[in-house]
């Protein structure tokens, strides 16, 4: 067998075994917290291995107005929302808004709650991946009490958390049942 034939056969074999099913490119997080009225779900669906990811969030029980929403480093709720740690930041960047050049991978900016306390988020992004080394599956997601200043507050805390205040609901991003 020629080397090139062998290489081709090997690469076909490898790609067959590393192919990703549609099921693996979906994720869901259910968010809540003790002593909090806030609950909701955030669904993620990535088009293909290198494609964009669609995000749909429906969160209720909020005070009207803006609330910070981020992916945090750990999918660990052993100490409530606190144990989700800091923002998930695999590129060691400064905190920013969802459109900023410098931002954490999981910086969603704010969700806006209507008078009835419901916030809906519906957008598509290239910055969130559900596969590969920087997959967000298994990470935490946190809804905050206050407005995220998108890193424009001019303080060290603004550069790391956006001054978004307390953690009023959180969950773990996992594989969905359907
Ligand atoms: C949001 O979730 C609530 C409660 O689960 C549901 O009643 C409502 O239809 C949902 N709204 C949207 C726009 O997804
Ligand atoms: C992350 O960036 C900061 C400066 O912005 C630097 O001090 C630190 O060493 C970096 N950490 C890693 C792990 O690269
Ligand atoms: C989300 O937004 C897209 C494009 O703006 C729209 O076509 C779609 O109907 C929206 N989905 C939901 C569930 O609201
Ligand atoms: C915040 O980060 C930016 C760079 O992203 C830097 O220019 C600025 O000095 C930082 N501000 C503080 C208060 O750390
Ligand atoms: Cu956060």
UniProtKB/TrEMBL annotation:
Keyword DNA-binding: no
The EC number(s) this enzyme carries: 1.15.1.1
Span of domain Superoxide dismutase copper/zinc binding: 38-173
Keyword terms, alphabetized: Antioxidant, Copper, Metal-binding, Oxidoreductase, Signal, Zinc
CDD domains xref list: Cu-Zn_Superoxide_Dismutase
SUPFAM superfamilies: Cu,Zn superoxide dismutase-like (SSF49329)
Top EC category: oxidoreductase
Entry cofactors: Zn(2+); Cu cation
Signal peptide boundaries: 1-22
Keyword Glycosyltransferase part of the UniProt annotation: no
Cofactor mode of binding and number, as noted: Binds 1 zinc ion per subunit.
Function summary: Destroys radicals which are normally produced within the cells and which are toxic to biological systems.
Family, per entry: Belongs to the Cu-Zn superoxide dismutase family.
Protein name per UniProt: Superoxide dismutase [Cu-Zn]
Organism: Thamnidium elegans
């Amino acid at each position: 067998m020629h080397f090139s034939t062998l290489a081709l056969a090997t690469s076909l074999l490898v790609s067959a075994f590393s192919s990703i099913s549609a099921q693996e490119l979906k994720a869901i997080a259910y968010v809540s917290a003790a002593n909090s009225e806030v609950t909701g779900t955030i669904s993620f669906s990535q088009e293909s291995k290198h494609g964009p990811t669609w995000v749909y969030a429906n969160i209720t029980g909020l005070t009207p107005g803006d609330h910070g929403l981020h992916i945090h480093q750990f999918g660990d709720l052993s100490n409530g929302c606190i144990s989700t740690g800091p923002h998930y930041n695999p590129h060691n960047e400064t905190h920013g808004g969802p459109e900023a050049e410098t931002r954490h991978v999981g910086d969603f900016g704010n969700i806006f709650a209507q008078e009835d306390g419901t916030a809906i988020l519906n957008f598509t992004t290239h910055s969130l991946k559900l596969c590969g080394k920087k997959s967000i599956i298994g990470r935490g997601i946190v809804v905050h009490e206050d407005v995220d200043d998108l890193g424009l507050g001019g303080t060290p805390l603004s550069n790391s958390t956006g001054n978004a205040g307390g953690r009023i609901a959180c969950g773990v991003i996992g594989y969905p049942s359907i």
